[in-house]
Design brief:
The protein is an alpha/beta fold. It folds into 2 domains: 205 residues, Enolpyruvate transferase domain (UDP-n-acetylglucosamine1-carboxyvinyl-transferase, Chain); 191 residues, Enolpyruvate transferase domain (UDP-n-acetylglucosamine1-carboxyvinyl-transferase, Chain, Alpha-beta prism). Helix content is 29%, strand content 22%. The protein has a 4-stranded mixed sheet with strand order 2-13-15-14, covered by helices on one side. It is globular and about 60 Å long. The relative contact order is 0.14. The mean pLDDT is 94.
């Protein structure tokens, strides 16, 4: 499909999607502990719609498609349920490792078996995990594994101690899980790389929860506004005080030539007369979802930069480091890895009209490269990939040309 957005200045209001990260956690907790929460501003993302559907399903085979969070959360969820289910997913899902989470659950007493290749989906879960205790897990694989274990901890008779070994990847997502649980009345603590959850006491004063707007989605608007002359957007209901780690974007704005201000009805992001820093250093260890948009933006601005913390990008919805390398090469940009560090040299960036960019059926790759259409016409197939987290993305982009 051909994409091009006339690069006019704009002053628009955006109703961002609700955070699927928050909504998915709340749905698991709400269902597992029968909290009967009234959830307002629910996420309409493909992942959240799928999770809601699977939590209500009576089938014994559940297809998690390409939703890693859904697969991982349900793996732990069904381990403490008194039922047997098979979890499967897309071809990409079946090469995304699940070993660390499965091993931890088996160590605690869960019954799980691999149905094809060891360490990877699909899996069969026999449930029956009841006792709890203590378990160790590698912090460098996926924060979703740790969040999944944390959420089932209070369901176990002895509670659960999770000892996280090594460097923790995407730590703010674990902190998000803990904060949400604490807000709902669970006794859970996280300090010194150890999470302790006490058994659920069935006491909560919470009857409702409003899901925050998604900070991860703002990253793509950073790109679009940075490319404008005087563009600005008001993001309704977005707040700097957030349980989302990706709210770090607010502190990154000036580094990228942007101003951000908190108003009564949301956050205002606008182009500022500030230079984007040359030879900048970025640590994405805690914020891997922001990497594609920031890297593409710096490439467009013909910058050199160094990145660390990109390890987990290889096991996302696509191999995002490979995707970024491959697609940026079409613009003459080099993204090179050397012993865990990634160097960007975009001094030769050049976008040729009608270049076809592959999004690898990955929502964040699709949205990161979509901003190129504000420079010249480009081509991209499979635009529905954005439905995974931001179903209204393309309609919102049209607002800049209204």
């Amino acid at each position: 499909m051909n994409l091009f957005f006339s690069p006019k200045d704009f002053n628009i209001e955006i109703d961002l999607p609700a955070s699927k990260s928050i909504h998915n956690r709340v749905m698991i907790l709400n269902t597992l502990y029968s909290l009967n929460l009234e959830i307002s501003n629910p996420s309409n993302s493909g992942d959240s719609v799928l999770l809601q559907k699977l939590l209500k399903s009576k089938n014994d085979v559940l297809d998690c498609e390409n939703a890693g969070t859904v697969f991982r959360f349900l793996t732990a969820y069904f381990s403490v349920r008194n039922e047997t289910v098979t979890l499967t997913g897309s071809r990409r899902m079946q090469i995304r490792p699940i070993k660390e989470l499965v091993n931890s659950l088996i160590d605690l007493g869960a019954g799980i078996e691999y149905l094809d290749k060891k360490s990877f989906p699909p899996i069969k879960i026999f449930g029956g995990l009841t006792k709890g205790g203590s378990v160790k897990i590698n912090g460098g694989t996926s924060s979703q594994f740790i969040s999944a274990l944390t959420m089932i901890g209070p369901k176990l008779g002895n509670g659960l101690e999770i000892i996280i070994e090594g460097k923790i990847s995407s730590k703010p997502y674990i902190e998000m899980t803990v904060k949400l649980m604490q807000n709902l009345g669970f006794d859970v603590q996280f300090s010194n790389n150890i999470i302790v959850t006490e058994p659920w006491s069935k006491k909560t004063e919470s009857t409702s929860m409003e899901i925050e707007s998604d900070w991860s989605a703002v990253a793509f608007w950073f790109q679009i506004i940075a490319l404008s002359k005087n563009g600005k957007a008001l993001f309704k209901r977005l707040k700097t005080q957030s349980v989302q780690g990706d709210s770090v974007l607010a502190s990154w704005a000036q580094r990228l030539g942007l101003n951000i201000a908190e108003l009564n009805d949301g956050l205002l992001l606008e182009k500022a007369p500030l230079p984007i820093i040359e030879n900048s250093y970025w640590d994405f260890t805690n914020y891997p979802d922001l990497a594609p948009s920031i890297i593409v933006l710096l490439s467009i601005e013909k910058k050199k930069a160094t990145f660390v913390g990109l390890e987990s990008l290889k096991i996302k919805e696509s191999n995002r480091t490979y995707a970024l390398q491959t697609e940026l090469k079409k613009c003459g940009v080099d993204l090179i890895e050397d012993n865990g560090k990634w160097s960007l040299n975009a001094s030769n960036f050049e976008l040729h009209e009608n270049t076809l960019f592959d999004n690898y059926d990955d929502h964040r790759i699709a949205m990161a490269f979509a901003c190129l259409a504000f420079i010249k016409p480009i081509k991209m197939e499979n635009l529905d990939a954005t439905n995974k987290s931001y179903p209204d993305f393309w309609e919102h982009l049209k607002l800049t040309d209204s």
